[in-house]
Amino acid sequence: MSTLASPGTAKATTAPKSAGPLKRFWRNNGAGYMFLLPWFIGFFGLTAGPALVSLYLSFTNFDLLTDPRWIGAANYVRIATADAKFAASMRVTFTYVLLSVPLKLAFALLVAVALNRGMRGLPWYRAIFYLPSLLGTSVAIAVLWRQLFASNGLVNSFLANFGIDGPSWISNPGTSLYTLVILAVWQFGSPMIIFLAGLRQIPQDMYEAASLDGASKWRQFWKITLPLLTPVVFFNAVVQTIDAFKAFTPAFIISGGTGGPINSTLFYTLYLYQEAFGFFRMGYASALAWILLVIIALFTAFSFLSARYWVHYDD
Amino acid sequence: MTDTAAKAVLDDDRGTEVVGLDDKRKPWASALIHALLIGASILMLYPLLWMLSASFRPSQEIFNSTSLIPSEVSVDAYPRGWFGLRVSFGVFFWNSLVIALLSVIGNVMACSLAAFAFARLQFRGRNFWFAIMLGTLMLPYHVTLIPQYVLFLNLGWVNTILPLVVPKFLAADAFFIFLMVQFFRGIPKELDEAAMMDGCSPWRIYWKIMLPLSMPVLATAAIFTFLWTWDDFFGPLIYLNDMRTFTVQLGLRSFVDSQGGQSDWAGLFAMSILSLVPIFFFFLFFQRLLIQGIATTGMKR
């Protein structure tokens, strides 16, 4: 992945050999800052400033109506020790992340490998598999899911053909979360496209050489495809995991905003939303937001550290 | 991910010699894989097609039916859904369209300005600010959410489109800055150096050279901004409380709530289908751009 190259690389080629007006032109710092002005206003006014304020708020009691009142680490202490809903939302979110991301990536990789054999109709298959991930975050799709897994919905009508009397998947706390996992897996299209791009970059002659040596397709997959694809697997895993931690809309629509039944779909972001905009506990919700940031940062750091041991980078 | 990767993915469309190679070599294995892929395609599309067909049936027929063909076709659900709430869906569609189009303009303008500075202008602290910009990509929006809300509340912007649109004009979607920086770096330096020799200002170089040469990335940014804004639920949920200001996504949610999800499923599905039409339009006509955008940048959808 060459995407994170620093802009410093551009500088070396910029330095003009002919001096004079050109040199003076590039020396002008003002132009750069003028072009960055909108971003600077946004960065200080909407990102850096609010982030600091939210850190402050997380140590206060704040209900929007009266001024924030400093209460030290009380929010964090309560979250850690006395908040059953927080514990439930962590359990739900981690279950969702740990189930949906590996399943989604496994499907994406499986289909990408199948499509990469150089077969007819590839653009058609690719388009069909991509469509759900393009539509997926709409409320319309969440609405559809609500019907699919309702007690008399499409899934149960289908099961009834086989004489199976399915439960109401949505309103059963034992199954509701899994309907959301299925929704996530259904949207495997975009990681699949990224896998396809990665597969295309593996030199064909490696497979030819392996075939000549008598390596089976199965062996070729484990010994050539997967190792060479690990940078793409890594990238997809990080992006999809961060995204899964932030999932909100489907759980909100399917549970009617409650995270129910019995907190079984109480995604972390949904809990945060309830605290902030349902109960107006803005200080408490800020603490929740910072905990989310720390979780995502820890996960990212852990991924990059572990990458040294399993991600194969070209020399 | 590099551009060659994206080109490699798209090469298949042109029927290069690789295509169909395996089909010829091992007809049986190939037929099996085609069968599996076709089965998977049907499974993937079935819910969507079913929703489409359900929007054309009488409501009582929606449940306990797995078939895609309605016993009688009726378009009644569309006007019924359209006027199913206190405020018509026409208003919601208009609001969504205004927000999405203004967001597109804001993102393309503000992000390309910033990207031009990062990619082409020399100034003190450029690398530092570039690193900071990349850092903001990692920040979950929840961390800035509450102070931003308080800010917009105090400005009296709640129940207007301003909290949803103004940040776009301040390049708050830093992802697109990054995307454009990558593209700008690929444009030959000689072009703007020559223009500079002729005494062109940075502004003219940006406007007359960079932007015209960057149409592919500007189009990608525009399309993804439109799609993301159209689909956005969280932002409107927080900032828009008055039904006359609702977007389509909020309208659908109210529909679910007002009906208790029970009575008028056909109407709800009809409006759901309509809400997906703009997305489907981009899927049909800009698929190459969408797929290329994902393959080159690893966007999440």
From TrEMBL, chain A:
Keyword Membrane: yes
CDD domains assigned to the protein according to its UniProt record, in alphabetical order: TM_PBP2 (cd06261)
Chain ranges of the ABC transmembrane type-1 domain: 90-303
Keywords, ordered alphabetically: Cell membrane, Membrane, Transmembrane, Transmembrane helix, Transport
InterPro entries, alphabetized: ABC_transporter_permease, MetI-like, MetI-like_sf
Pfam families: BPD_transp_1
Gene Ontology cellular-component annotations: plasma membrane
Keyword Cell membrane: yes
Entry's transmembrane regions: 33-59, 94-115, 127-145, 177-199, 220-239, 251-273, 285-311
Subcellular location field: Cell membrane
Membrane topology: Multi-pass membrane protein
Domain of life, per lineage: Bacteria
Biological process annotations from GO: transmembrane transport
Family annotation (PANTHER family): ABC TRANSPORTER PERMEASE PROTEIN (PTHR30193), ABC TRANSPORTER PERMEASE PROTEIN YESP-RELATED (PTHR30193:SF1)
Family: Belongs to the binding-protein-dependent transport system permease family.
Full protein name: ABC transporter permease
Species annotation: Pelagibacterium lentulum
UniProtKB/TrEMBL annotation, chain B:
PROSITE patterns attached to this UniProt entry: ABC_TM1 (PS50928)
Signal peptide, first to last residue: none
Transmembrane feature ranges: 31-52, 92-116, 128-149, 161-184, 205-230, 265-291
GO cellular component, one term: plasma membrane
Similarity section: Belongs to the binding-protein-dependent transport system permease family.
Compartments where found: Cell membrane
Record InterPro entries: MetI-like, MetI-like_sf
Protein name: Sugar ABC transporter permease
GO biological processes: transmembrane transport
Keywords, comma-separated and alphabetical: Cell membrane, Membrane, Transmembrane, Transmembrane helix, Transport
Membrane association type: Multi-pass membrane protein
Location (main, coarse): membrane
Domain ABC transmembrane type-1 span(s) in chain numbering: 93-286
